[in-house]
């Protein structure tokens, strides 16, 4: 709770929690949701989920999905399969695949802050607040890890 103490001061001042539900890395989504659930239960506050894609402004968000893929409003795809001609792209996927996107006619935003998700936008686009159990992750593909046989 050190970070919360530093940012909020008194955790009892928290009256609701917004958490990014994805898309993103499986582990990051799980850590974020577990943290939000633990805090919500401890503080008895409602929670709302928000898509990571809604945390960007100034262009079309493209998030690096690893494995040579990206997450976008169209789901998960190979960078070369996105129709990006004439669009401004933001996000770490736009940076990682800049050459591919620029060759396809896109512009990758030059301002570094445009490539980081904004917590303020995440809050602005959050879904309805309710019980923490009602917030589910947004997974666009199967995780890399598989149960052993």
If you had to describe this structure to a student in words, what would you say it looks like?
By secondary structure, the protein is of the alpha/beta class. It has two domains: 1-56 and 117-137, Nucleotidyltransferase, domain 5, CATH 3.30.420.40; 57-116, no CATH class. It has five helices and eight strands. The chain has helices at residues 2-7, 26-43, 92-96, 98-103, 119-124, and strands at 17-22, 47-51, 60-61, 63-66, 69-72, 75-77, 88-90, 107-108. The longest helix is centred in the N-terminal third of the chain and has 18 residues, at 26-43. The model has no long low-confidence stretch (mean pLDDT 90).
In short:
This protein has 2 domains: 1-56 and 117-137, ATPase, nucleotide binding domain (Nucleotidyltransferase, domain 5, 2-Layer Sandwich), CATH 3.30.420; 57-116, no CATH class. The protein is built from 5 helices and 8 strands, in the order H-E-H-E-E-E-E-E-E-H-H-E-H. It has helices at residues 2-7, 26-43, 92-96, 98-103, 119-124, and strands at residues 17-22, 47-51, 60-61, 63-66, 69-72, 75-77, 88-90, 107-108.
CATH topology term of the largest domain: Nucleotidyltransferase, domain 5
* Outline: globular
Number of strands: 8
Average pLDDT number: 90
Largest sheet: 3 strands, parallel
Q: What is the CATH top level name of the largest domain?
A: Alpha Beta
Helix content: 25-40%
Give the spatial strand order of the biggest sheet. 3-7-8
Order of helices and strands: HEHEEEEEEHHEH
Which CATH architecture of the largest domain?
A: 2-Layer Sandwich
Strand content: 15-25%
Rg result: 17 Å
């Amino acid at each position: 709770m050190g970070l919360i103490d530093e940012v909020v001061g008194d955790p009892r001042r928290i009256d609701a929690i917004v958490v990014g539900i994805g898309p993103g890395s499986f582990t990051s989504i799980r850590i974020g949701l577990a943290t939000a659930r633990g805090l919500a239960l401890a503080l008895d506050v409602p929670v709302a989920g928000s898509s990571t894609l809604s945390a960007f402004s100034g262009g079309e968000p493209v998030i690096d999905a690893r494995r040579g893929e990206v997450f976008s409003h169209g789901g998960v795809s190979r960078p070369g399969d996105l129709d990006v001609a004439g669009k401004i792209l933001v996000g770490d996927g736009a940076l990682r695949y800049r050459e591919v996107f620029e060759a396809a006619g896109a512009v990758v935003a030059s301002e570094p802050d445009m490539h980081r998700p904004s917590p303020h936008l995440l809050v602005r686009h959050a879904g309805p607040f309710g019980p923490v159990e009602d917030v589910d992750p947004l997974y666009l593909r199967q995780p890399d890890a598989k149960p052993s046989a």
